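The methods section describes the discrete structure representation at length, but only in general terms. An entry of this sort, consisting of the sequence and the corresponding backbone structure tokens, reads as follows.
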Amino acid sequence: MAKQSRRGGDGSVDGRVRHILATLERRGTKRNREGMARYAIIAPKAFGVSVATIRDIGKQTGRSHELAEALWKTGWYEARMLAPFVDEPARVTPAQMDRWARDFDNWAICDALCFHLFDRTPHAWRKIEQWSGRRGEFVKRAAFALLASVALHDRTTPNAPFLGALPLIERAAVDDRNFVKKGVSWALRGIGRRNPQLNAAAIAVARRLAAASEPSARWIGKDALRELTTAPVGRKGIAAS
């Protein structure tokens, strides 16, 4: 009989994946699957496991780049949501980021990868620029979810790259797809919350957008202005919407 690893399975990557999938299946509920649908989280393969439970499983699982890749390849929503809590940021490659981004099929997967993994890699800024010009809805959203995540988590980068990203926001603001425009607004708000200089620059962009002829640009501008002109600059929590 194969020896059981203390982290589940027989200790091999395949064994651990089987153990994790079995755990996720046990923890899944119809109520959670129905809740996903209410929040427009569409996934062809889902057990219905809460994000809090997925995070707990991630803590118990530990870090493993190979395991994260294997979890992603299963195609299960919860396994892919677990991947950013398992992967090792220093080992993530640009090719992997592109490959996974092409698989994004809902906003929750997109945001989880950007917020919990991709923003911690050295490739984040390059992907923000590249993905901002992509056509696919969730890859394009990923550019701005990643920009918002970097704005929140990176406390060492100077203002220049964030100022340089504002034209990307203005160009994308005319995209009226729901998940893109909400990602663009999130990024603009995130930049504007870093410090007074970036706040002023982001407000200037938001005001131009609020006066634009395109409905999506006006929505983004007004959405950002509501927060950037009232909330304290530098507050850590920047919620997605």
